[in-house]
Amino acid sequence: MTGKYNKIILLLFALIAGIVWQHTSYHTVALSFLLILFFASKMYKKYFYSLALVALFSIGAIHHSLQYIKQKQFYDRVAGKTFSIVGIVKNIRNQESRRHKQCITIDTYKHKTLQIYTREQPNIQVGDTIAVNNLTCKKPIKQSFANYLIKEHIAANIFTDKMNYNVIKRPSFSFSRWIFNKREHLLEAVKTKMGSRPFAMFSSMFLGNKKIKKKENDRVKKRFKLWGILHFLARSGLHLIVFLIICELLLKCIPIHIIIKRLIILLIGIVYLLLSWPSISFIRAFSVFILYKTSPLLNKKQDLVYLITVVCFLMLIYNPMQLFFLDFQLSFGLTFALAILTRQNSKKPAQNNAEKK
Questions:
Q1: Cα separations in angstroms, 113 against 71, 72, 74, 100
Q2: Pairing of strands 164-169, 113-118
Q3: Cut 0.85: pTM above it
Q4: Domain closes at, from 51, 76, 101
């Protein structure tokens, strides 16, 4: 790898070391790792770069610490108490549970996201500003579940038979409501034109939506498990790449400028993201796709290893807790390995040609 790629990878490792320092008790290991990175950076003979390693180590540790502090402060204020919130409805999801029929996701003005599970379906829409009263919640008993809530940016899950609420404002137009309705209409339109089993497969593999009957979901999972391809049901970057490759092949038949084709592919990718239910691996693939397609437009070289490193760096800066969950580790670990192998294999023909000359 060139020095340019080594530099950003070392910065990424420094950030990871800081997050690990805060999350685990292996402080000596994390500090030793930072020292190794620090001495490795001496090859660049730049004092500023060494300071950047230390700064990113500190940023990773501080940001991850703040995630715990904010969660603790929230539960110290509300755990075991009755409280009220005012926020905007971001999502409404039907549940198969006999006790709770709907899950309503609300973003409060204090940047907290609550999921309220209720038996009675309230008369609200996505995009509404509502006030919810007489809520109670408990602090998670297991730290693993508390970590999961932090990773998902959820302050708490609240369960109630009836939601005591008032609609404060319903905007005449809401982009989030428009997208939500389009997704739901698309899902219903596909469901009416497919059998239950094909719909379960299509919904899971291409839309990333698990809102299907448990009986059909288990039946499809059993068949895929028997074939040894159960991972295909968990929509990943592979599904996005296959979809976009098909779109690119179709666009090749249209005689338009290549820049316009790239812009059309970008637009198709964005629409696909908005009309589906993305996962970590899908967001990773979509981010790399955006950078990969915009690089030629900005006269930048396309390098997959470099782009994946940048995306991983940005995602950990945004949410350090992701580092400790298997979906993030597998998504980036496998992608890094494949990208590095692809680069090495692409260099071999050039080296062989040079040796022949």
A1: 11, 15, 11, 19
A2: unpaired
A3: no
A4: 76
